[in-house]
Specification:
This protein has 244 residues and is of the alpha/beta class. Helices cover 31% and strands 26% of the residues. The chain is built from 7 helices and 13 strands. Strands 1, 4, 5, 6, 8, 9, 10, 11 and 12 form a 9-stranded mixed beta sheet that branches. α3 packs across α5 and α3 packs across α6. The longest helix has 13 residues.
Amino acid sequence: MIGMIFAAGYGSRLKPWTDAHPKALVEVGGKPMLARVIDKMRRAGIGRIIVNTHHFADQIHDFLANGDYLDYVTISHEPELLDTGGGLAKVIPMLGDEPVLLHNADILTDFDLRSMVRAHAASAADATLLTAERPTRRFLTFGPDGRMNGSVTADTRVMPDSFGFNPADKTALAFGGVHIVSPMLFPALAEIARTTPKFSIAAFYKERFADFDLRSWPMPDGAHWFDVGNPQTLDCARQFIANS
């Protein structure tokens, strides 16, 4: 299995810090988030990792080079930002027939990635998505078998049953920015990229869930999750690490 870390974004929610730095290098507990995610993948047995870059790409390259990461990290530079789906589609030629573990650089978790990798292999799903019950504006929905069957927004959750959201057959969960994609999805992603190079993989999931086996992988009990992409949650993550 190959790993890919999405590190290309502008990080506009972390301005003014990201006016001069890439979001992936924001520090939590004195360690850049990019290093934390790389180390987490390595502990899970991921031997080769791709990091995409755009915003202050030179700083990320220098960090990886100075830290001797380039022995096992490949940089996929995007002269124009491609978003998550386009970024993945761009590196498909590097992946061969191996699944890829995708991880946003601004997500801090403390669960063992190996358990998620094992679950993906056992299910033979086309994609396995980290999910949790937590507040968000956009939800993915899953059936009793854990297979994705739609999406809703926070507003539409309170609409009448005629809208299409029925708790009996749809559980609304938040997507956690960590997922595993099997080669089965590569042709569909590449096809979109031929005409629309920039696209979100979350949007792809929402539009194509009926065509593929997309499974929920619930975050383990007692595990912690932080989106460090804004000052408030970044402070929470730093406090968590300081007290761990």
